[in-house]
Amino acid sequence: MAIQNVMVIGAGQMGSGIAQVCAQAGFNVKLNDMKQEAFDRGIATITKNLSRNVEKGRMTEEEKTAVLGRISSSLDLKDAHDADIVIEAAVENMEIKHSIFKTLDEVAPKHAILASNTSSLPITEIAAATNRPEQVIGMHFMNPVPVMKLVEIIRGLATTDEVYKTVEEMTLKLSKTPVECNDFPGFVSNRILMPMINEAIFTLQEGVATKEAIDDIMRLGMNHPMGPLQLADFIGLDTCLYIMEVLHDGFGDSKYRPSPLLRQYVKAGWLGKKTGRGFYEYS
Ligand code: CAA
Known about the structure:
- Helix content is 47%, strand content 14%.
- The protein contains 11 helices and 8 strands.
- It has helices at residues 13-24, 36-55, 61-69, 94-107, 123-127, 161-173, 189-205, 211-222, 228-235, 237-251, 260-268, and strands at residues 5-9, 28-32, 71-74, 85-88, 113-116, 136-141, 150-155, 177-182.
- It has an 8-stranded mixed sheet, sandwiched between helices.
């Protein structure tokens, strides 16, 4: 199936990044959110990113205008009526996702693929809210979306090979690398990343080293672009805790128990970069 029209649900950090890379690849994009202000903020971020590309000589001013021209605002899920694929990047809450996917199933064309950018919620369970579970799939982009090369593609229990193939081809058109995995808690990325971050927080909690030392050891010793505590701040400590809970519940194994220090920071409202304070302070 040839994809032309893409609808992205959620104009936050991930959703706006996904809309940007889709528009840059030539797709028509509807960027949906509940409020116009959220769309405006998303478009402002996209415009800033594209302007940097123009400044760096990677794009002309005309190309930037054309990319922005391919993105339109949507405040109603019914706008999915002409979508070939919908990529949902709303909040990580199963009830909300069920409600969105149920509506999308009613309003999107029969052929449309319904994808979720969820970082850890089961695709099979999201798909169960629809009458087309074979056309539901995970498309897990990494943050920051315009920079990161990976899209982890998650097959739900019922996802067909044809749907997988279409999404794989679309990902290649976005100049990203699709990597396939099955629907299991945390998929592959967060099953491996989050326990590492959680262990770094335990290491800090136990006073083994300072936060700077932990990050330096992983940055300089393992060539990670960011240390695990800096990365946790970047992802959001609430998100890290949420994903650890998904792993802990999903596997029932104590090796996934979230660090008490992580819980304490989340309770304090120290959620990382987005709130100005996590393991580090941000101005
Ligand atoms: N949006 C768009 N572009 C961005 C950006 C953003 N938010 N942040 C950085 N960039 C661009 C910069 O503009 C710069 O581009 P130029 O080549 O035009 O200069 C380029 O990325 C490099 O940025 P910097 O020089 O400022 O800084 P850096 O070299 O330290 O790179 C980084 C920044 C790419 C974020 C790098 O630190 C990195 O790769 N960090 C790790 C990111 C990571 O692990 N992401 C996955 C998180 S987990 C996840 O997303 C999934 C989940 O489910 C939790």
